[in-house]
Amino acid sequence: MSAESSRSNLPLQTSFPISFLIIGGGIAGLACALALRRVGHHVLVLEKMDRNAARAEGGVRLPPNLSKILFHWGLRDALLSKASVTTRLLFMRYESGDFLGEHVWDADMLKETRGMFLMMSHAELYDILYDAAIKHGAQVRFGAEVVDIDPEEQEVELASGEILSADVLVGADGEYGSSRSALLGERDVGTPTGLAVYDTLVPAKDIPEYAQKLSEKKNGQFVAFGKGQAVVAYAIHGTDDVAFQLYGRDTGDDGRYEDDPSVDVPQVVQDIAQKLRLLVRGARKAVRISVREHRDLEDWVSDDGRLVLIGEAAHPFPPGTIQGTAMAVEDGAVLAKLFSHLSSERQIESFLYAFQELRQARVRDVRAGEFASIFFMTADGPDAAARDAAMRGKAAQGKNVLEGEGSAEGVWEEYRVVFGYDCEDEADDWWVQWGMLRERANGASEMGASVPSLLDFSAATSQVQITVAAE
């Protein structure tokens, strides 16, 4: 049963609507806007770029933990009209092109997740979220660059000089945005790893044999392992284009997603197999995005006021990985789920900190796993040799190459746990276990009543005595 059919698409509506100002109109900002509007809050999104620039090109992978959220939000049909469904990974060597084996996602595991593994273009996902957010009543302003954020006053200043305010400010403008700097009090650019992702598209008409192979493998994702390099490729736009992501040596400083495509991919590949070189020659100019490690922020909520960070602003992920987009959407889903229970202004701060509490450990673990996946793909030396030998051995036996013993098994188990997670269920659990209890305590306090301790047996005894006397 799909997530959409197993849940109601009519979420709980807040009884106390407030205003949210979201800084950043990318996937994180739009998903958060849609989620908040679905539960009845007022939302304005500010995006510094125009819409075409914000849409961007390139591919994006939607793992089951992401697609299940969007299915629940009523976007199943819109997604499946654009996305390709994949259940297969195919592995080869970067330098030789030798086949290492394949892995087919377990059907029962995917069913348990209530989602699907989808592949589509970033622009298609952007349009689906934008259209849904607007349909639900969100306001989005493009060309609105935020130059100053005042969490204490809950205000932002635009480059035009305009001042805007809201009950809550949400920073969704990425690792280099003004929101992260406002919370930290300084600009944080992370630590270079020496790797970069070169992100581009390859028209399928220029590589017909390769595109045909993708089709024969039921929209498989191709992954090539190399020495300090790796390639991830998968079909998008139906099968009209192939999304191509090369992990290789970083040739510059501070490369970002919003940069213009300027890199000739053949000039940055090294020692690539001949059968992959054809794919490289057909590639359009690529965007170079530096892979950087960022410290974990102790707080995602400002001490000075109601500013909360989500997505890359809170937890920058290595570019091109499966879970970066998913974590950003999960953030918006959890924030909205918590604020669906808002009934008074005094709850706002506690809900913001509950959001932080629910998300930090999850994101930290998933991000560590994504970095491990990059190092797994680009490993060299004895570890890489052992990995390849184990995968070839499993393939020779007709087995899935990520199952069994060894480092690959660890990767597979992480996938099972991460894919099966339901962030909205976690938010519901928090409300039932802690939020409602806190509200009862606050309600009793406001009425001037004392709240008996859960371990106050004298109170329990007196209640029993009253009951007995009544009989």
From TrEMBL:
Listed Pfam families: FAD_binding_3
Domain FAD-binding: 21-366
Keyword RNA-binding: no
Gene Ontology terms for molecular function: FAD binding; monooxygenase activity
Keyword Transmembrane recorded: yes
TM helices/strands, residue ranges: 16-36
Domain of life of the source: Eukaryota
Keywords from the named record: FAD, Flavoprotein, Membrane, Monooxygenase, Oxidoreductase, Transmembrane, Transmembrane helix
SUPFAM superfamilies documented for this protein: FAD/NAD(P)-binding domain
Xref: InterPro entries: FAD-bd, FAD-dep_Monooxygenase_BioMet, FAD/NAD-bd_sf
Family named by the database record: Belongs to the paxM FAD-dependent monooxygenase family.
Name the UniProt record assigns to this protein: FAD/NAD-P-binding domain-containing protein
Species of provenance: Lentinus brumalis
